[in-house]
Specification:
Layout: H1 2-10, H2 60-70, H3 82-103, E1 104-107, E2 111-117, E3 120-125, E4 128-131, E5 138-144, E6 149-153, E7 161-163, E8 169-180, H4 183-188, H5 193-209, H6 214-218, H7 222-240, E9 244-255, H8 261-308, H9 310-326, H10 345-350, H11 356-373
Antiparallel strand pairs: 1-4, 2-3, 2-5, 6-8, 7-8, 8-9
Helix pairs in contact: 5-7, 8-9
């Protein structure tokens, strides 16, 4: 409306009008001097008469022109020419880098990427290249799910005393191996997962040790105790939705308290020695049993052959027996009919000397045979 009024006034459409916007009637004394108006409808130099302005802004075109001048589109200060192009391309490059580095994520084979949208869990990215909305709309936290973590409880320098099922005290040190199974539960279900795992491990060990005797705890049942502690820990952590998998328990030390440790060591050494003797006796018994079984089997085979040919088998057994008996005996075989004198043939064969009495007996034995020859 204001523009229309200014356009009409510029063309003299309101020359005869009376009123606050028309010309005053001619009084014959000439037109009085016009004072500059400072009202909202005052004319501004450089504009057509009657073109009004609201403050310093006359129209939407004027507002846009001043905005362009303020931000470097022309006129006074700001960026113009080459500086404007450099600034524009630099801003575009920064935006692109921000989009690339906050939207593309490289997930290693052993990792998983947990995506949160405005702080709330959204999804889990697998290995490879994952795409998300730029930060801070979506953020990615990488979690290593294959790394085996160790928690050591108890040490040689600090006693960790526990009560056994037979009301004895044991100093025990052990380690827990675990890894992350569910990244979402590991990050959001527990406030401090590492401390929770330590407390659950200690509670499970005390519960299991309280059901066994001292000799079992320091003896051969360590493997059974480790398996039971692992099972109890896994059940408790699953009830907490911790997203953790217990890989194993290793008992590194299980000794009585330091005050009675030496006496228990002696008892343990005696038990091990007795067990060693028992193992040796069992091994010897097994050896004799196997030998007897072998001999019985051989006898059965010979008996089967004897049933088929009794005379041949009897003769072969006689020869084998005589061979076994006479194999270690010094013997001389004389094949001469009618020869009965005693000769020390064993000493002769061995190259030894005969005694005088033996020599005299030999001479007396040879004299009758010489006379008989005459």
């Amino acid at each position: 409306m204001i523009s229309f009024v200014g356009w009409a006034r510029a063309r003299g459409l309101f020359a005869d009008s009376k009123g606050p916007w028309g010309q005053a009637p001619d009084s014959g004394q000439g037109e009085p001097p016009r004072r500059p108006s400072t009202g909202p409808w005052a004319d501004t130099p450089g504009r057509t008469p009657g073109q009004a302005s609201l403050g310093n802004v006359t129209s939407l075109d004027e507002l846009l022109r001043r905005s362009r001048a303020r931000f470097g589109g022309g006129g006074g200060g700001g960026f113009s020419g080459p500086n404007r192009s450099v600034f524009l391309w630099g801003a575009i490059a920064l935006v692109l880098l921000w989009l690339v580095f906050t939207s593309m994520h490289r997930i290693a084979p052993e990792e998983r990427g947990v995506v949160t949208t405005l702080g709330r869990y959204s999804r889990t990215l697998g290995p490879g290249i994952g795409l998300t909305l730029p930060s801070p709309l979506e953020r990615v936290q990488k979690v290593d799910v294959e790394n085996i973590r160790n928690v050591d409880l108890g040490s040689a320098g600090a006693e960790t005393l526990m009560l056994t099922g037979d009301q004895n005290i044991i100093d025990i040190a052990y380690s827990v191996r675990w890894n992350i199974r569910d990244p979402e539960q590991y990050l959001f279900k527990l406030q401090n997962p590492d401390d929770t795992i330590q407390q659950v491990a200690e509670s499970a060990m005390r519960a299991v040790v309280g059901t066994v005797t001292l000799n079992d705890a320091i003896g051969q049942r360590r493997g059974e105790i480790e398996a039971r502690v692992q099972e109890v820990m896994q059940n408790v952590l699953d009830s907490y939705q911790a997203g953790v998998a217990v890989q194993g328990i290793a008992i590194k030390q299980a000794d009585p308290p330091a005050a009675v440790n030496e006496a228990f060591k002696d008892v343990t050494a005696a038990q091990q020695e007795a067990e060693s003797y028992q193992n040796s006796a069992n091994a010897y018994s097994l050896q004799l049993r196997q030998k007897a079984q072998g001999e019985a089997g051989a006898f059965n085979r010979i008996y089967e052959q004897y049933r088929l040919a009794p005379e041949v088998t009897r003769r072969r057994m006689y020869y084998e027996t005589m061979e076994r008996v006479l194999s270690n005996v010094d013997k001389t075989i004389v094949e001469a009919p009618g020869v009965t004198p005693y000769l020390p043939l064993q000493q002769v064969n061995r190259g030894g000397t005969t005694s005088p009495a033996v020599q005299q007996g030999q001479q007396q034995a040879q004299q009758p045979s010489a006379g008989a020859g005459r």
